Every structure is written in structure tokens, then in C-alpha cells.
Amino acid sequence: MQVKVPAADGKATLNLLGPRLLRLTWTPGTEVQEADARDVLEKSLLLVHHVPYAILVDMREIRIITVGARAAYGSEEMVLAAAMLGHTPVDRVIAASVQHSVHKVQFFTDESAALDWLTRYLPASQLHPV
Q1: How many Cα atoms within 13 Å fall on the side-chain side of residue 69?
Q2: Which of 11, 121, 123, 124 lies in the 20 to 30 Å Cα band around 18?
Q3: What is the pLDDT of residue 3?
Q4: 12 - beta bridge partners?
Q5: Which domain holds residue 81?
Q6: What CA–CA distance (Å, rounded) separates 68 from 50?
């Protein structure tokens, strides 16, 4: 059974896909602020019980990730890898803005490919679903 948690004052939802694997989905039209990013990071750590994790970020339809939000995400050392899922050239540009992170970041248009990529960063014992 998947666990879902609202975040960023209802602008986002976190889904626990596996012991160390999360999916973050933003509400269409969201402008991701630093406070939103920090709330998502805090709730992510609670969901994975404060262990390093990988995250699929469904960023389709968001408007912008502010400089402060990018800095918060990019400096989170508990993230092993982040797959940015989008489908437009604008999504690709937004994803490129978080490429300079302390963890691996890659843009994808295909969710299955993104999840396959993320599992390479998880310990083998953590690949089974919740």
C-alpha cells in the first residue's frame, strides 16, 4: 500500500513508492518557493525514516522553481538521486536549473525510465515496494 502525504500547504503530494523511494507531485501552476521546498524535504525525511532516499519529481505543469527553492533542493545531502519528470521544453529548462546539486539529477519524459534510473541509486535490499 502506498503512503501519501500532503506537503507545501497542499501544493504538493509525496508518495512513498518503496522504503527509500518517493514520488513528489506538484499541483499544476505552482510556483515552488523556498518554504515549499523545505517543507517537502522535511516531510520526505519523515516518510523514509531519516535515511538517504531517491525521489521522482513530477514537475509537469509547474510554473517556476525559485532560486531559494533550487538552493534548498540542491543542497540536500540525504537525497541520493532526483529524477525530474516533465514533458515540455519549459520543463526541461526548469529541470536544468537544479542540475548543480550535491546529488545526481536527470530529466526524463518517461516515468518508467525515470524509475529505472532511480533504482540504480538505491541499495539492492531496498528495491521491493512498500
Answers
A1: 18
A2: 11
A3: 87
A4: 7, 26
A5: 3-126
A6: 23
